[in-house]
Amino acid sequence: MHTVHELERIASQVRRDIIRMIHDAKSGHPGGSLGCTDLLVALYFDILNHNPGDFSMDGIDEDIFVLSNGHISPAFYSVLARSGYFQLKELSTFRKINTRLQGHPSTNEGLPGIRIATGSLGQGLSVAIGVALAKKLNGDDSIVYCLLGDGELQEGQIWEAAMFAADKKLDNIIVIVDYNGQQIDGPVKDVINLGDLRAKWEAFDWQVFEMNGNNIKDILETIGTVKEEIGNRKPLVILMKTEMGQGVNFMMGSHLWHGVAPDDEQTRVALSQLEETIGDY
Amino acid sequence: MELVMKAFSIREYKDTRSGFGEALLELGRENKNVVALCADLTGSLKMDKFAMEFPDRFYQAGIAEANMISVAAGLTIGGKIPFTGTFANFSTGRVYDQIRQSVAYSQKNVKICASHAGLTLGEDGASHQILEDIGLMKILPNMTVINPCDFNQTKAATFAIAEYYGPVYLRFGRPKMPNFMPDDVPFEIGKAITLKEGSDVSIFATGHLVWKAVEAGMKLAEQGIDAEVINIHTIKPLDEEVILKSVFKTGCAVTAEEHEINGGLGDSIAQLLVRKLPAPVEMIAVLDKFGESGNPGELMIKYGLDTPNIVDAALKTIKRK
Question: What is the CATH number of the domain that holds A125?
Answer without folding.
Answer: 3.40.50.970
